[in-house]
Amino acid sequence: xxxxxxxxxxxxxxxxxxxxxxxxxxxxxxxxxxxxxxxxxxxxxxxxxxxxxxxxxxxxxxxxxxxxxxxxxxxxxxxxxxxxxxxxxxxxxxxxxxxxxxxxxxxxxxxxxxxxxxxxxxxxxxxxxxxxxxxxxxxxxxxxxxxxxxxxxxxxxxxxxxxxxxxxxxxxxxxxxxxxxxxxxxxxxxxxxxxxxxxxxxxxxxxxxxxxxxxxxxxxxxxxxxxxxxxxxxxxxxxxxxxxxxxxxxxxxxxxxxxxxxxxxxxxxxxxxxxxxxxxxxx
Length: 283
What we know:
10-stranded antiparallel β-sheet; 5-stranded antiparallel β-sheet; 50% strand
């Protein structure tokens, strides 16, 4: 599926055609983003396998719910954007594990030159719609609407992993991450090549191939944490905002190919309630 508006080119994949694993949302799977003379997103991994948990590109979203903890072995738990999955054993939920999909729900897809709409209906559970809309020759939005139908409340988070490749440049001192606040957080281990700055996150040396860096609790210690960040490599920049949303925390993960800022937004819905939100990207 190809969307175009001026010089902006976005390639998307229909649900289940490219990505078939059970971690990320199947709606609006990005394959490639080009514009302003820059390839912002394409494949960042060395070997493609549709069943690999992170075989996704560009803005890739996941719903993290707590329903897994309340079902027994062999019973079903829900992941919006994927469907009903089966718990195979007593092991805790593993984001990197491939689970059996018991029910995909009903998917419908429609497309216009600069807009694609993905809709998933999972009977008795939810109706989920995601729109990818090119709003100008250098911007696009991801528009969501999740209607919860089940008597059991939905509790958890939605986040976007943001796998941007910036002309396949290696992650190093030219890759910058800026927030509208001074970030704080804890690193998984001491890293000699990355740290927090007054404006964001900076690298002092390239990330070695086969290595990664991680912080799971990036936030603004002085107040609310806005959903606003800029990821850049030299002259290629991506500004990401979600109007009206507050972030419970950011996760930051990087390897030699991508430096990913993951904003987590709380999702709590009772039966019949609807959550609508939008993420804006400026290139």
